[in-house]
Design a protein that fits this description.
Elements (H helix, E strand, L loop, with lengths): L28 H26 L6 H26 L1 H7 L4 H26 L6 H11 L2
Helix pairs in contact: 1-2, 1-5, 2-3, 2-4, 4-5
Membrane topology: Multi-pass membrane protein
Protein name: MARVEL domain-containing protein
Pfam families: MARVEL
């Protein structure tokens, strides 16, 4: 008993240009903390950058160090948050590596040093016009 079988193959190509955002990551503790880090970094850079540009005659190394360190780690946190938001696997894989521990340890130490340096400098020069703003930026980074 013989019979014939017909096999049909169909090739389907689809080009999907949708961008998938992992919004569930923002509901986790690490997502919330990274978003908070990013927001505080933006606020501190805004304050320090504004005061830095207002003080054209006298540029202080403590203010420059603070601006440099907070900008560096704000950009790093933004890239880390962006990579976790745009990839489902990155959020689960990167937390299992030592990268985040090293990144946040180094960031903590350098931002704390920059913040304390600016705090000491601002307290020594209380007659400075932007005293309250720089003091607030310095304390904000210690949070």
């Amino acid at each position: 008993m013989s019979h014939s079988v017909t096999i049909r193959t169909q090739t389907v190509t689809s080009s999907s240009s949708t961008i998938v955002v992992n919004t569930g990551y923002l509901k986790t503790w690490s997502g919330i903390l990274k978003l908070l880090q990013l927001a505080l970094g933006i606020v501190c850079i805004g304050i320090a950058g504004h005061e830095f540009s207002n003080n054209l005659v006298y540029r202080n190394t403590a203010e420059l160090f603070f601006l440099l360190i907070t900008t560096t780690f704000m950009i790093g946190t933004f890239i880390l948050l962006l990579s976790c938001l745009t990839s489902f696997s990155t959020a689960s894989i990167i937390s299992k590596t030592i990268y985040e521990l090293l990144y946040h340890s180094i960031a903590f130490g350098l931002v704390l040093a920059a913040s304390l340096t600016l705090l000491v400098h601002v307290n020594n020069y209380k007659r400075y016009n932007g005293y309250e703003l720089l003091l607030g930026a310095s304390v904000c980074t210690m949070l």
